[in-house]
Design brief:
By secondary structure, the chain is α+β, with helices and mostly antiparallel strands. It has one domain. The chain is 19% helix and 34% strand. Strands 1, 2, 3, 4, 5, 6, 9, 10 and 11 form a 9-stranded antiparallel beta sheet that branches. Strands 7-8 form a two-stranded antiparallel ribbon. A hairpin with a 6-residue loop joins strand 10 and strand 11. The longest helix is centred in the N-terminal third of the chain and has 19 residues.
Amino acid sequence: MNRRGISLIPVAVFVAAMLFAGSGYAQDSDFNMNMHANSHATAKDVGLPLYPGATLFKDKDSDSSSADVGFVLNSFHFSVLVVSYVTTDSTAQVLSYYRKPLAKYGEVLECDHGKPVGALSVTKSGLTCGDKDHGKVNVNGTGYGDHELRAGTPEQFRLVGIDSSETGKTKFGLVSLVLPKDEGK
């Protein structure tokens, strides 16, 4: 998620609050709104272990290597936790390490540039490699979508995304997403 996207969240919260406040909701109504933002998320917060020997990755244009943003408005829930790391180990080693911890959230789906790798293309819960951004997660301008592992449901999942664009380094992001449910399904 880039800075522009994060900076729009407070505006959305304010607009939603004004709309609902102007609608005459009483204190005893079912109206519930909550928002949080934090730049100090950890691998543990995401629900995954830290890769041995990995160090926090800070992009030259960012003052943080993580993000924790959440928004709840009644039944609308959105949350993203991201932590960026770097290691000298290979992409294959990082992906292999995270298969078992991700399995506690469900079937592990492997994706390469938004396309499934292997026989599994949709998990039993309905999770796929695709999304609006062709499977790519963008955090502070760094794309983590070259290769990734996903586990969970379409509304709530974890992923380990790899950026292997630098020779000799593997940058990876640990991500936890809670997305609004598609009421149309």
